[in-house]
Design brief:
The complex is a heterodimer of chains A (255) and B (303). Chain A has 255 residues and is an alpha/beta fold. Chain A has a domain at 1-76 and 188-255: Rossmann fold, CATH 3.40.50.300. In chain A, 38% of the residues lie in helices and 23% in strands. In chain A, the strands form two sheets. In chain A, strands 5-6-7-3-8-9 form a six-stranded mixed sheet, with helices on both faces. Chain A has a three-stranded antiparallel sheet with strand order 2-1-4, covered by helices on one side. In chain A, α5 (167-184) links the parallel β6 and β7 (187-192). In chain A, α2 runs parallel beside α4 (137-149). The model of chain A is unreliable at 1-8 (pLDDT under 50). Residues 1-40 and 298-303 of chain B have low confidence and may be disordered. Chain B has helices at residues 17-21, 30-73, 84-93, 95-129, 131-146, 149-159, 163-188, 192-200, 205-243, 252-261, 265-300. Chain B has 303 residues and is mainly alpha-helical. Chain B is built from eleven helices and no strands. Classes of the chains: A alpha/beta (255), B mainly alpha (303).
Chain lengths: 255, 303
């Protein structure tokens, strides 16, 4: 059992003894104990169907645990980035980014500046009036990130956000996310099935087993600087191999 | 080279190592991308639309010529099959009579379409907001849909004194179902990610309906409206066939019945032509309205 969330450890988010059983008896998650600390990038790594997205939805409050508890720091402002860009096709990039502000009841006159700021962060200032259909897959995803940043979150939950993109675009976006997260001191839970992405982005990786999803291993990644040099390094390769091995043994223990 | 267009081509065009580490920045302005997209669309529409209009017209010209020639060569009597030229001169000669009938039928069609839209959309909203209402009423919508209008039109004509209202009612019943089913489908087909986003922000039912369900439903609604337009016209004509007209005014179906009884076959064909042409024009009109409305919605949805 990890300690209670307290000020000393600065825990933002914690799952304690969490399980999730779906209506037809499928156990998606079992005995999850996991905490996210302030300013940390925690990655949930696991094969498809291991319940990592389910755990993220529990963290977000989009779904409720069958047993156990989810704690979230009251002061945390949460944003969620989905697997797909999930933009509204009928309106502009700017209106899409403004949506969370509109839903939160932010006055219209205050929205424009916040939207401009969020679009500038992802390098899409020139595309405010474009429609989603005019953008490439990578650009749509960046609009989706801008939409998550517009509420000035402290906690970012990202559910395999770049899974549908090609490798080059994914790597670029990983770099952009790292830069944004570090610049604003965000705490992040990142879901992926890609060991390279996990090795590159994370401060800590929780390796999950297939159904029922359990956390079978935690790997701490202690790297001074990321970037192209890190991607070429032996350490990066070794980390990816280590995560790959952890993933393999996790799959074997469960079957 | 890392233009925004390259990302769509994936790693193939941007596989050099510089791009792997550099951030993906759009090097094109938005307007140049937009104008290119517009240019591509225009080119595509231009290329596709002309054969789509010209080719069927050519077929029509050929068929009409064959018809004209066959009737003249084989000396087919005019009360069996009139030549297209005879139908055309009859149409012009009988225009005052036929035009009055045309407006009558179109009026019924328009009234029925309006009623079906208001009623259908209202029911669709209720169905989506409340499961019990949907479960209770949807079977009856299906019931209305599967019951042949020719079977209930005589009843409606007996029950409703005003023939205009009776005919409108028949046409409305025929046009209602595609509006209900398409609008319900549209209101339901929302992006699950967007639904989650609205849930995360504790959006009210009203916000979900107005900001998410209604815009998501528009394309399906307009395709339902297109189907309903054709059905409303058919409903108006069929109802008049069954009911006849009580009053002084008659629609195109009445003209066809009268012309048949009088063996005025050219006028019968002329009235038939007007019904078909109305259907095509109404369909095209609804397609256009759908396109314009969606476009306008896109522009006006900005805050």
């Amino acid at each position: 059992m990890p300690p209670l969330p307290d000020a000393a450890r600065n825990t933002i988010l914690e799952a304690r003894g969490v399980s999730r059983r779906f209506e037809r008896g499928v156990v998606a998650l079992a005995d999850i104990d996991l905490a996210l600390h302030a300013g940390e990038i925690l990655t949930l790594l696991g094969p498809s169907g291991c319940g990592k997205s389910t755990l993220l939805r529990l963290f977000a409050g989009l779904d409720a645990a069958t047993t156990g508890d989810i704690f979230r720091d009251d002061s945390a402002r949460l944003s969620f980035v989905f697997q797909e860009a999930t933009l509204m096709p009928w309106t502009t990039v700017a209106a899409n980014v403004a949506l969370p502000l509109a839903l939160d009841g932010v006055p219209v006159r205050d929205r424009a500046a916040r939207v401009d700021e969020a679009l500038a962060r992802v390098g899409l200032s020139d595309f405010a009036k474009a429609y989603p259909r005019e953008l490439s897959g990578g650009m749509k995803m960046r609009v989706s990130i801008a939409r998550a940043l517009v509420t000035r979150p402290t906690l970012l939950l990202m559910d395999e956000p770049f899974g549908a993109l090609d490798d080059i675009t994914r790597q670029r976006l990983d770099d952009e996310v790292l830069a944004l997260v570090r610049a604003q001191g965000l705490s992040v839970v990142f879901v992926t099935h890609n060991v390279f992405e996990a090795a590159y982005l994370s401060d800590r990786v929780a390796v999950m087993s297939p159904r029922p999803g359990r956390i079978v291993d935690e790997v701490i990644i202690d790297v001074a600087a990321r970037g192209s040099a890190f991607r070429q390094s032996a350490q990066y390769g070794a980390l990816a191999m280590q995560l790959h091995a952890a993933l393999l043994s996790a799959s074997e223990t469960s079957t | 080279m890392s233009s925004s267009r390259n990302t769509e081509d994936g790693g193939v065009t941007s596989a050099d190592s510089n791009d792997a580490t550099g951030t993906e920045r759009p090097s094109e302005t938005r307007s140049s991308v937009t104008s290119r997209v517009v240019a591509e669309n225009t080119a595509r529409i231009g290329a596709a639309a002309w054969p789509a209009i010209v080719a069927p017209l050519m077929v029509a010209v050929v068929l009409l010529l064959l018809w004209e020639v066959a009737v003249r060569v084989f000396k087919v009597p005019v009360f069996l099959v009139p030549a297209p030229s005879v139908i055309w001169t009859t149409l012009l000669a009988d225009w005052p009579l036929l035009a009055a009938s045309l407006w009558f039928t179109l009026g019924i069609t328009a009234l029925a379409l309006l009623a079906a839209t208001v009623l259908g959309v209202t029911l669709a909203f209720l169905f989506v907001q409340n499961r019990l209402i949907e479960l209770s009423l949807f079977p009856y919508a299906v019931l209305l849909q599967v019951t042949p209008i020719v079977a209930i039109a005589p009843l409606i004509v007996i029950w409703v004194d005003n023939s205009l209202i009776a005919l409108t009612l028949c046409a409305t019943i025929v046009a209602l179902f595609p509006i209900i089913s398409n609008t319900v489908f549209g209101l339901r087909s929302i992006d699950p990610g967007l639904r989650d986003l609205f849930a995360l922000h504790h959006a009210s039912r009203w916000q979900v309906l107005w900001r998410l369900r209604v815009p998501s439903a528009l394309p399906a609604f307009f395709s339902g409206l297109r189907i309903a337009t054709g059905l409303a016209l058919i409903g108006a004509v069929v109802a008049e066939f069954v009911a006849g007209t009580g009053g002084t005014q008659g629609g195109l179906a009445y003209q066809i019945l009268q012309a048949g009884l009088q063996l005025n076959i050219p006028r019968l064909f002329a009235a038939l032509f007007l019904i078909t042409a109305s259907g095509v024009v109404l369909f095209a009109l609804m397609t256009l309205i759908g396109k314009l409305a969606l476009k306008r919605w896109h522009d006006s949805a900005r805050d």
